[in-house]
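User: Before I run my own analysis I want an independent prediction to cross-check against. Here's the chain; please return only the structure tokens and, at the end, one sentence I can use as a sanity check.
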Amino acid sequence: MPSIKDQSTVGAIATAFCEHRCKSRALQAGGYSKYYSERAGLKLFTNVQLIVAIKTIDDKTKTEHIADKAERQQFWTTVYLDTKANMGDRLRASELLGKSQADFTDNIRNIDDSPPELTAEEIENAKAQAKSNLKLLTNNELGETG
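Assistant: Structure tokens:
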């Protein structure tokens, strides 16, 4: 059985995990049996060396393969300016470039839903009106008037 203390085992597991994102498959690539990798082996992913190895590979992959904002904008600009490119591709590049630079933001009105501020006098008038309305409703239900 392979040892998690062996750097080559850690490297094989980390590489396979970063490629497939499947823990049991990664453990099998590191030399563990299918049975062990699907059950007890999963605890090996708490090993610090393995965690560091996976993070190192992920960080390297991100810096090597994922374009940042400036690179995407440069690419879209190149496609947009390429007169030999399909017009649909050029328009789409123009649209994505504009979106990335917030050219197409909508003007949205900010609606204040908070209740208006009332003076003490307005509050007292509203209370008196509510009491009066309540009295009228109660009297109407009882068949009284006035």
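Sanity check: The mean pLDDT is 85.
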